[in-house]
């Protein structure tokens, strides 16, 4: 098949947009932590880029997107036809009719794997050993993300049953959210949790990160159509609608409940809308996208408080936003799916579909959520009992940036102000203005 240059150019752009989301996530998460943890939080996202990219080269794409020669095993994990990605170089274009090179498709899917791993890190901010996180990222991507991607997108059992997940509500957000809950339970609560203030140290970074996520998400969602057509445009518009309305819904809930609409709320609300529309963006009409955003923004605004009622320390609300938001979007398809990927069996109840699709849209989140939670619990526990997953108490109190990375996010010692001494000696105060 001849290469379609227009589609290829768009997919290269979409791939770059999705990769940009992980540095955006680093800023979003980094601003939400305390100042003494910002660098470590951001380093966890960059470590995910490194680790997952290396694994993708060796076997990640193969396990997720090639066919296993044993049909029974193929239901759960792919084969080894693309080890080292060399076979994709020899394949001029993907065989899906899109007209883009196979390596472009692979690069696009790589960026999804990267951000899924990075998302988990927000649940264990301030207290995880960096080396343990790197090991966890490698193991989790291998035995959780790659198989789940195969289940849903690579010809596995959920794909064969007809589950709908346009851009990763199940594969990315429910998968990461369930893992975040398990890992937070294994590692335990931060020192001083619920006793000391642990407010975001830099809301400017949070808003900047949210803006980068919002921008990159257009590649995430519209790019998942894999070709340039009307459905890609629908996914693009639905992403904007759901995100804006979710952000508004969150701050309305804040205003009614707490008396204030906050910048953290508008950023978190936007992300909840992005999460919820991800599985549905190319399958639903604009009115349904708006409704999904409204529900996600309002429900997630309450869901982030579950950690206080259930007594688990999900530092940056990965569970309340990504797990809950992902479930809302995935299940909503059982009601409002209007443009099924295959046939009329994919229609939602409101469009004349039966209960079968709704059942699948419930089954997928349950199956992926349980698998991710249980396997993450095992991985986290093994690491915790062997090399240790948590930094010492004194390091946590001092600050993980200094004790782990020998750096700080802010060099406050050089601030020039009256009465402040810099590392280079006393600071001479600026002369005062004399009033006439």
Automatic annotation (TrEMBL):
TM ranges: 12-31, 38-59, 103-125, 132-154, 166-188, 200-220, 226-253, 260-280, 286-306, 318-342, 362-383
Name under which the protein is recorded: Ammonium transporter
Record membrane topology: Multi-pass membrane protein
Compartments in which it is found: Cell membrane; Membrane
InterPro entries (alphabetical): Ammonium/urea_transptr, Ammonium_transpt, Ammonium_transpt_CS, NH4_transpt_AmtB-like_dom, RhesusRHD
Superkingdom in the source lineage: Bacteria
Keyword Magnesium recorded: no
Disordered: annotated span: 417-436
SUPFAM superfamilies: Ammonium transporter
Pfam family, one: Ammonium_transp
Flavoprotein in keyword set: no
Lineage of origin: Bacteria, Bacillati, Actinomycetota, Actinomycetes, Streptosporangiales
Assigned protein family: Belongs to the ammonia transporter channel (TC 1.A.11.2) family.
Domain (Ammonium transporter AmtB-like) ranges: 9-410
Keywords: Ammonia transport, Membrane, Transmembrane, Transmembrane helix, Transport
């Amino acid at each position: 098949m001849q290469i379609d240059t227009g589609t290829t150019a768009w997919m290269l752009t979409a791939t770059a947009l999705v990769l940009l989301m992980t540095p955006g996530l680093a800023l979003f998460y980094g601003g939400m932590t305390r100042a003494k943890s910002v660098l470590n939080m951001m380093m966890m996202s960059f470590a995910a880029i490194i680790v997952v990219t290396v694994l993708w080269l060796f076997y990640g794409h193969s396990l997720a997107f090639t066919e296993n020669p044993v049909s029974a095993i193929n239901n759960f994990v792919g084969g080894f036809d693309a080890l080292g990605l060399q076979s994709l170089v020899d394949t001029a274009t993907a065989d899906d009719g899109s007209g883009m090179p196979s390596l472009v498709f692979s690069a696009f899917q790589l960026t999804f794997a990267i951000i899924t791993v990075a998302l988990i890190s927000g649940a264990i901010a301030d207290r995880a050993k960096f080396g343990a996180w790197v090991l966890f990222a490698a193991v989790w991507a291998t035995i959780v993300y790659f198989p789940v991607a195969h289940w849903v997108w690579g010809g596995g059992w959920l794909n064969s049953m007809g589950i709908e997940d346009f851009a990763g509500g199940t594969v990315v957000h429910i998968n990461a959210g369930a893992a975040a809950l398990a890992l937070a339970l294994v590692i335990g609560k931060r020192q001083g949790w619920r006793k000391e203030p642990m407010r975001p140290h830099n809301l400017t970074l949070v808003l900047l990160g949210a803006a980068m996520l919002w921008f990159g998400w257009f590649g995430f969602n519209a790019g998942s159509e894999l070709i340039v057509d009307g459905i890609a445009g629908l996914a693009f518009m639905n992403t904007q609608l759901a995100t804006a309305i979710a952000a508004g819904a969150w701050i309305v809930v804040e205003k009614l409940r707490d008396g204030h609409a906050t910048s953290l709320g508008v950023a978190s609300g936007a992300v909840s809308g992005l999460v919820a529309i991800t599985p549905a963006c190319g399958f639903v009409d604009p009115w349904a996208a708006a409704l999904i955003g409204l529900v996600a923004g309002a429900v997630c605004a309450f869901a982030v408080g579950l950690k206080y009622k259930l007594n688990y320390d999900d530092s940056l609300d990965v569970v309340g936003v990504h797990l809950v938001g992902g479930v809302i979007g995935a299940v909503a398809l059982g009601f409002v799916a209007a443009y099924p990927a295959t046939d009329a069996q994919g229609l939602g109840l409101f469009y004349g579909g039966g209960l079968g699709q709704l059942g699948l849209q419930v089954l997928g989140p349950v199956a992926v959520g349980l698998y991710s939670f249980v396997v993450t619990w095992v991985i986290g526990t093994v690491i915790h009992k062997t090399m240790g997953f948590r930094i010492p108490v004194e390091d946590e109190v001092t600050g993980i940036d200094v004790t782990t990375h020998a750096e700080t996010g802010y060099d406050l010692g050089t601030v020039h102000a009256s009465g402040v001494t810099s590392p280079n000696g006393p600071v001479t105060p600026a002369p005062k203005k004399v009033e006439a």
